[in-house]
Amino acid sequence: MNKHKHWALLRFYESTVAGMQLGNIMGMDWTPSTRPVEVVLNGDYLGLYLLTETNRIDKNRLNIYEQPNWNEDENTIPYGWLVEVDNYYETNQISIRENDSWNLRLTYHSPDSLSTAQRQWLVGEFQDINAAIYDKDKINSTWEQMIDVDAMARYFIIQEVLDNSDGFHGSFYLHKDQKDDARWIAGPLWDLSCNQREKTDYTFRMKTSYGFTPHWIGELIQDTDFCNAVKDAWEEFYPREVQPLMDYIDEHLLLCRDSFEQEKVQWNFTNQDPLEVRVDKLKSALLANIEWFDNNLPSPPGTNTKVVLVNKEVVKVEYVNLAGMRSTRPWDGVNIKVTTYDDGSTSTTKVIMK
Fold it and tell me: CA-CA distance, 303 to 137, in Å (whole number)?
């Protein structure tokens, strides 16, 4: 972790560690690093936390051009922004009408004090983006002239693998550098969670226990170019990067076993599961989400998919458990069954042995 004056102490939450690493694997522009730490203040033990880099424009954080506050220069106003689609009211915020049901709140973090010219530009920019996203023509779309479609696709995949309801609801950051053909780029990541439930649909369509406004994604998922970008990014991730993600989760979370036991006593946890059990539950949920998404990659409405049946012979079947161990026979508990065919292709399915 690079030297800096600005940090956050976040609750020790397994899905934060997994999600931030997923951001690194998916190739986001920059993703905050986290480190588990035990906090002691004046001799008092305060618990186990995640020391986390905050989302800031800086040479050691999100390394892009930073526009000054109160800027009046129309040539530089369109560049050097860090904003957040937010679900809370803030004073450093604009609001536009997104659709007939809700507004879109946009918190501007950098710059954080706007001139009249900056505010007018930002409002107009996101009104234009919103209109382009909601355009009924999903084939000849123009929103991707303003937003990087590949980065948005990768951001979407991360939210789906995590099953993070807040992904397009709040803590949804976007940034824009100063360069030729600069576009808004999704990220950095923040405030990640994993519902650990049975996934039956895309996360933004599934019910939550709170008021929920999934900004833009309901329109984007109908867009041809967005769906193609999701498919391309998914093929980079799956299945090659799945096991490295599981290994990372084990390596970086299970080191905290003893500290977590003290954490449960410190805060009188209702759930007394040891950390190993919690980590296994997280990995099992992520693997199930991955399997569901691989079988339900988005495609635009009305897409005609021609199915070609090809006879292939199975040459090898292996079972991989949550520890990454392989065997020709299934392990007790959760397995990923990897089938290899004579043409070199593979398929995976989730198998639970009780």
Answer: 14
